[in-house]
Amino acid sequence: xxxxxxxxxxxxxxxxxxxxxxxxxxxxxxxxxxxxxxxxxxxxxxxxxxxxxxxxxxxxxxxxxxxxxxxxxxxxxxxxxxxxxxxxxxxxxxxxxxxxxxxxxxxxxxxxxxxxxxxxxxxxxxxxxxxxxxxxxxxxxxxxxxxxxxxxxxxxxxxxxxxxxxxxxxxxxxxxxxxxxxxxxxxxxxxx
Length: 192
Hints:
Elements: H1 14-25, H2 40-58, H3 65-70, E1 79-84, E2 93-98, H4 105-116, H5 130-137, H6 154-157, H7 160-172, H8 187-190
Antiparallel strand pairs: 1-2
């Protein structure tokens, strides 16, 4: 399998891999065990019904292109796998959830595109990559030391309710551009 960084190939005993994955999944603050998981068909039907309701509300009851774009067709369940972090002690796994064919994939891709244009607009501390950071600090007179912190499981530790509250505040302040794409609803409409 591929390493988390650097593109190296890692050979790991399958029992060690499963043990590390189970250890990740046993974290009840991040993952919840579902006793009777719904079928893919039930997930698809529920998702499509919700999309239809939202689009109908946004478009005054008209069936639109949006419904066709976001509705799920022939989905598969999302699955999780681990990518070894060979640069860390003990070679822990970086959990990756693949949603490539999940019911909400089209909506997620659209939402990422809609929100992606706002990266760096809410905070001056946002860096696109390490070269961006170097450009920002190279002409600064920094006294003392710069420190880099390693965040453990960043994405699973971001409080979703706080993110939604932040996005709602940005919407209320008119940050999102409702005229960016005429044929699709904007984030401003979804946040209503």
